Amino acid sequence: MSDAPPRPPAEELLLALQMGDSAYPTGSFGYSWGLETLLAEGLVTRASLPLFAEAELEGRWHRIERIALAGGWRAEDVAALEAWDALIDQYLWSEHQRIHSHEAGAATLAAATRLSLPGAAALREGVAAGRMAGHFPVVTGALYRAAGLRLGTALLLSAQVFLRGLLSVAVRLGLAGALEVQAIMARLVSPLARLAAPPPPDARPCGFSPLTEIAQMRLRDTRLFVN
Amino acid sequence: MTAARIGIGGPVGSGKTALIERLLAEFASIGIEVAVITNDLVTDEDAERLRRGGQLPPERILAVQAGACPHTVIREDPTLNMAAADRLEARFPQLQLIMIESGGDNLASTFSLDLVDWWMFVIDVAGGDDIPRKRGPGVLQSDLLVVNKSDIAPHVGVDFDAMMAEARAVRNGRPALATSCRQGSGIAEVVEHLRREVLFS
Ligand SMILES: Nc1nc2c(ncn2[C@@H]2O[C@H](COP(=O)(O)OP(=O)(O)O)[C@@H](O)[C@H]2O)c(=O)[nH]1
Ligand SMILES: [Mg+2]
């Protein structure tokens, strides 16, 4: 979008730490993306959590969110971003997933606008005027770039935030220990680094994670998370 | 014009939703345009109850899930509530007031001033007359402290006047009002206060 000069490595690292921190307001702590349902129904258990996390990282983040975010980062102007967002919208076939993805994008934009982040006001205008849905990973990619993160860093950050978010759902539901999930994260560092490689520009989302996609369509009446 | 955003916090069961129901009736009678966001913890119970109450069109009541973090959603990361309030404002440009009810939690909860312009904290006599003495940021820092359920004070062995005096003493001159949402007493004073401090009407 706007071409911020790349930051010196130390600054980029600090910025990534800040934007990836759980204290950084994006509203994503409210979403479980199906995991709350799966845990409640015993389809994911404490024992299978590490494998589940890795499978989601591969099937959902790597194949869908990574592509969506990279396209958002690569868009050269608002028109290109709107076109990319419209394409992503078509790839999210589950209605709940689609709606929750743009609600999460709206929460991110609400904070980014208030923080006067570069590019945020223009994006929010596009969403308010109905020119784009503003999907979470697309918006995030654009904001990371405008903040001065390189694509490789933006992707590593997004993957890490995704994994942390997923595991923290299990912690908050009392189904995994806070230290236990840190051990899982540490074990997934190498796969995560490999999976976060930038996709070629012509890559399109092509993921399938039936368990979570279907779980997101079966929202529980008694739930703590948005989905 | 943008709507004033106010927070209503306080422990579970103190009467936050009951107060909102009372306020909605008052606002309707004086023609103030209102919407409500609830932060129910596990269900949409409060949102559903307000919708059933019929004092507002159902689309003016939004429920925001807090991901098991009732503090976070109003303080550390208020973006979900900010986005919900933005949605309400976009849909109902005539709104003058958006009330955001916290999911309810302990005495340490506060509202982020990124989210609200003003906030009140609701406690009740049945939670113990020592609550003001225990202080806590909610009791001390809120713009208005409401002590609810005055009607049952004798039944739970609470000297209500002493409790109010103590509440006022720990708040260093910040206002505290007594209500009984059950009987409807004290509600007019809360409305009066809101009109003066928040709505400037
Ligand atoms: N006796 C009495 N009961 C009240 C009063 N206000 C609320 N309640 C009751 O207290 C319970 C909790 O009220 P609610 O509004 O749901 O509390 P919230 O969790 O803070 O929203 C309900 O059973 C209400 O009917 C009051 O002023 N007097
Ligand atoms: Mg309530």
Report on this structure.
Chain A: InterPro entries: UreF, UreF_sf. Chain A: Keywords: Chaperone, Nickel insertion. Chain A: Pfam families: UreF. Chain A: This is Urease accessory UreF family protein. The complex is a heterodimer of chains A (227) and B (201). By secondary structure, chain A is mostly helical. Chain A has helices at 9-20, 35-40, 49-74, 78-91, 95-114, 120-128, 136-147, 151-172, 178-187, 189-195, 210-217. Chain A has one domain (32-38, 45-217). Chain A contains 11 helices and no strands. In chain A, helix 3 packs across helix 7 and helix 3 runs antiparallel to helix 8 (151-172). Chain B has a single domain (4-199), classed as P-loop containing nucleotide triphosphate hydrolases (Rossmann fold, 3-Layer(aba) Sandwich). In chain B, helix 1 (16-30) packs across helix 7 (187-199). Chain B has 7 helices and 7 strands. Chain B is globular. In chain B, strands 3-2-4-1-5-6-7 form a 7-stranded parallel sheet, sandwiched between helices. In chain B, strand 2, helix 2 and strand 3 form a beta-alpha-beta unit. At the A-B interface, helix 5 of A face helix 3 of B. The complex binds guanosine-5'-diphosphate and magnesium ion. Guanosine-5'-diphosphate is lined by residues 10, 12-18, 104, 148-149, 151-152, 180-182 of chain B.
What keyword list fits this structure?
heterodimer; A: 227 residues; mainly alpha; 11 helices; B: 201 residues; alpha/beta; Rossmann fold; seven-stranded parallel β-sheet; binds guanosine-5'-diphosphate; binds magnesium ion
The run of helices and strands of chain A is: HHHHHHHHHHH
For the largest beta-sheet of chain A, the strand count, sense and barrel status come to:
none
The end-to-end span of chain A amounts to 31 Å
List the ligand species: guanosine-5'-diphosphate, magnesium ion
Q: What is the domain total for the residues of chain B?
A: 1
- Overall pLDDT score of chain A: 92
Secondary structure class of chain A reads mainly alpha
Name of the CATH first level of chain B: Alpha Beta
Keywords (chain A): Chaperone, Nickel insertion
Pfam families (chain A): UreF
Protein name (chain A): Urease accessory UreF family protein
Binding site for GTP (chain B): 10-17
